[in-house]
Amino acid sequence: MSLTDLDMRAGAGADLILRRATVLDPVARIDAQHDVVIRDGEIAELAAPGDAVAEGHEEIDAEGLHAFPAFFDPHVHLRAPGQEHKEDIETGSRSAAAGGYCGVLAMANTEPPVSTPADIEALRTSARAAASVRIGFLATVTRAMQGEELTEMASLREAGAVGFSDDGLPIRSARVLRRALQYQRLCGGAIALHEEDPELSGAGVMHEGPVSALLGLEGIPSISESTMIARDAALAGYEGGRIHVQHLSAAESVEVVRAAKAVGVQVSCEASPHHLCLTDEEVRSLDPQRFKMNPPLRSESDRQALIDGLRDGTIECVATDHAPHAPEEKEVPFEAAAMGVTGLETAFAALHTELVIPGVLGLGLLVERMAGGAEPFGIERPSLAPGSEANIALCDLGAEWIVGEDGYESRSSNSWCAERPLTGRVLMTLAGGQVAYRLRSFSLGVAA
Amino acid sequence: MRHLLSIEQLSKTEIEAILDRAESFAEVGRRDIKKVPTLRGRTVVTLFYESSTRTSSSFELAAKRLSADLVSVKAAGSSVDKGESLKDTIATLSAYEPAAIVLRHPHAGAAELVARWADAAVVNAGDGKHEHPSQALLDVYTLRRRLGSLEGKRIWIVGDVLHSRVARSNLIAFKAMGAELTVCGPPALIPRGLEQLGCEVTHTLDHLGDAEVIYALRLQRERMQESFVPSIREYAAHFQIDSRRLGRRQLLMHPGPVNRGVELSGEVIDSPQSLIAEQVASGLVVRMAILYELLAAGDEPAPAHGNGAAPPTRIGQPA
Questions:
Q1: Is the residue at A406 inside a domain?
Q2: Which residues of A5-23 are buried (b: 16+ CB within 10 A; e: fewer)?
Q3: B226 or A218: which carries more pLDDT confidence?
Q4: Where does CATH 3.40.50.1370 sit in chain B?
Q5: Structure confidence by residue, pLDDT tens digits, B272-285
């Protein structure tokens, strides 16, 4: 599947030159200073610095700025249909563009859940009308996410569903998941899994450990996640199916995925910026706005295991699990608050600040993982190779900013990064060949 | 002290200041007229989202003994029943410009949130399974009166620690006062990682004889339905404090209400070792001391005048 198969608002292809940008695309083996020439929404040429001829098109002085392949997020909640007070396709895709993303995959746990071909068609129509970046839609694995009967997976694929997920809920029944994996042979489409054993999670609201013991909050043990991954990896191996494990949070889970890959199971997985940057120590503040999500923030050793997994490729990609919520769902005590935080606008900057600057992760590796969410779903990854559609994140790695100080593109403000100082900022995003985002203050610095 | 949200926030010195204040109120309590004018003209709101006998009644009486105007709101039968959010309820009650809000809520951190929203001093009268600081203070007060100091004293907390805010607050408070803590109960009822808070964890009463103080916790009868314990009978067989297990020189405490025949046998409740009735009596003076420390202690250096708080020299004066 090509990126261009995903939907977005039609518009004029960009014509511009990013003059003297530091161009970094590890997968395409590009790492040098270039004039990036974009014509009619396509990367026409990576010229020697200063060599490109403007031909009357806009030029941007990108000296000292980095051009990366724009990012791809396989896990966002755009809340449409049904919860447009939290987010919708327009605001969610704008939020993605502001974070340097050219494409996202929208989860199906809407109201009602995306379970029919008509649902998929309606969403694709909306995306063609309102989306600033390319959006792929997932459909639920089971009807209305009840975990009992399969959706019409083949018809959903024909209608354009990129894959399937009951995200928000695990598929309790091993039998049901097995049937879905069998049916996948017919219809294709990765099955993305929210892995959690409801019996072990109970009414848990945070990671089970010393902090939950101190706070008297019910814990969600790490094994709630890892035991389900082990079960589902075994099912996928047995049926030859293809699964994508969502938002890994625990060290045990990384181990289970690594072991499954070693024996040839077709399993990919993702980790979220908040799990890579924070631990359950943050929950001491009892602030649900920033620190309540599922899976929960875990211990420092879990965080280190995720970083190791990202480094050695066990974890293919970063996914934000962008989960907007209205203030009234978060301005309540921790236990009563909704789970989830927003993250699209800050993912790259946060990981750059917390992992790249301290030397934990190389910049190239981060850039690779930020766009690594496409391939597990059979979508080609964004590239800066000449001839590609222009999907570019232009970043100033030295820019310092405070998250939320200028508000958010998202309709919701439950950012886990709220009020954090970050270093590194997306100044401009090209998505699907169009200028999808430009930081307001940055437009003042444009060279003529 | 601006609010009393947790024991964790208090230093040993701050705890002792409250206990010393409580001692002076105990003296007032022995007089014919037990009321002082300290909080005259000021309003105390008690807002209880959970049922409570001891805590609510003692806070209410404490406020009255200090001459405050009292508004007590129970969630049942109030607009909370009609779906009003905590934030809106606080905004409504704040219109009365209360000096203090005493809050009992089923969720951890509720008092902290209210402290952010309201101008009043906030007293956490129990937030979920998190903390119950006034209970811990009255327990330390009770023990201090009996033992002089808690330094080096061996205290065992026995029972359902997982579901107990009292256990958490007391663990922190007893440790702050220098005691050595052992926590004992069925494994599923001891939170994972608790030992990292600086206590011993054991699952049998074999060495209960080492304890100088035994603090038993309530076991809710429903716990066996969730398989935390197989049965009440088996729990009692292994963890009940009875006359066979309770030594003559050991002290016995319980936050109440007691499940007779479950965590405590009937005879130990009424034994000379039991401090349970003293704990309830301490509750009143300690809660008076808490309200005083929050609302009046800051006024101490100021000269006494008509409205509002009075300096400590006037504590003894009848209203």
A1: no
A2: ebbbbeeebbbbbbbbbbb
A3: A218
A4: 12-131+281-314, 133-278
A5: 999 999 999 999 99
Amino acid letter, residue B101: I
* Rounded Cα–Cα distance for residues B157 and B208 (Å): 10
Query: Is A128 found in the same domain as A34?
Result: no
Using pLDDT thresholds of 50, 70 and 90, give the confidence band for residue B310.
very low
* pLDDT tens sequence across A280-329: 999 999 999 999 999 999 999 999 999 999 999 999 999 999 999 999 99
Closest CA relative to residue B40, chosen from B303, B295, B298, B262: B295
Q: Are residues A10 and A94 in the same domain?
A: no
> Which residues from A are below 8 Å from B197, CB to CB?
210, 213-214
Q: Where are the strands (E) in A211-271, listed by range?
A: 219-220, 242-245, 266-271
Verify that A238 and A270 share a domain, yes or no: yes
Given the residues A119, A166, A232, A321, the one annotated as active site: A321
Whether residue A317 contacts residue A267, with contact meaning beta carbons closer than 8 Å, is answered with: no
Residue A357 identity (one-letter amino acid): I
Domain with A27 in it: 3-67+388-397+421-445
Question: What pLDDT, in 10s, does the model give residues A350-362?
Answer: 999 999 999 999 9
ipTM of the complex: 0.87
pLDDT at residue B227, as a whole number: 86
* Window B:74-113, CB contacts with A under 8 Å: 85-87, 105-110, 112-113
Of A216, A328, A332, the CB nearest to B128: A216
Q: Are residues A26 and A140 in the same domain?
A: no
Amino acid at B278: E
Q: Residue A410 falls within a domain, yes or no?
A: no
In the block, tokens 């509720």 appear at B110
pTM: 0.92
Q: What is the CATH number of domain B12-131+281-314?
A: 3.40.50.1370
